[in-house]
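Because showing beats explaining, we let one protein speak, sequence and backbone structure tokens together, and leave readers to judge.
___
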Amino acid sequence: MKIFRLLLVLILWPFAARAQFTDTFDTLDPAWVTDRYAPAAFQTVSFDGDNRLQITIDQTGSTANRPAPTYSSDFFNTQGDQRPGGILGAWSLSAQVFVSSAFDTTTGQLVQSDLWGHTGTNSANGDYAIFGLTNASPSDPLNPNASDRSFRFQIFDGTSTDPTSWFDAGVPSGFVFDGWHTLTETFTGTTVDYLLDGVVVYTDPSNDGGGLQTAFLEAYNFGQTDGNGLNNYSVYWDNAIASVVIPEPATCALALGLSALGLVWAQRRWFGRAA
């Protein structure tokens, strides 16, 4: 009977929509733990008619106010939480972000917030798939007065040892501010595709993929001050989903064919023994 159960799994597997986690942030799941350095807030709040995740950055987490020397480096300007991904093979990670019109500025508050996926087969290898928004200068990101500031979506196309490789995904024509937008990262088995509201905006063929080890939601502390030392910003996220990618129809058909042949073989072997 074990062979029949195994073959049944093979038949049903290609059609299984296996979500590893779905987080609506009605409450804050304890699976989320601090990554690098805690932001001023990583919490569930009521916003835009529902409970959402709020990430808040302020001067309490700036370089000048973090405990030295342990947390003095720019590495700890990235502040947020992470949770286990736990997916081997092809995967998809998505989340919705509220894009405020206040972010669309070249003179006001510096902002950056991202959805991260750590790829690979274990915690010691792999790369980072990063998709997010910013209005900071690409050449002088800590300078709020930089002349090349612009709001845009951006994608990290590098490795953990090359933190400068950012791709400018721009802003789609007709983009609507003060609304929710879905960012998705999908490892297909050979590439990582980045989708904004369901449309592929970038494909990274070099990412080694191999699994989703960890999911992150992050924001960046620019150390900006308004003279009172408390200049801050908040970004709202919702509906974070990590799931196993469903195979293509051709793959499903092949699996079904092999499963059917296996059932015939097993049936003949079973009844041959019974005779």
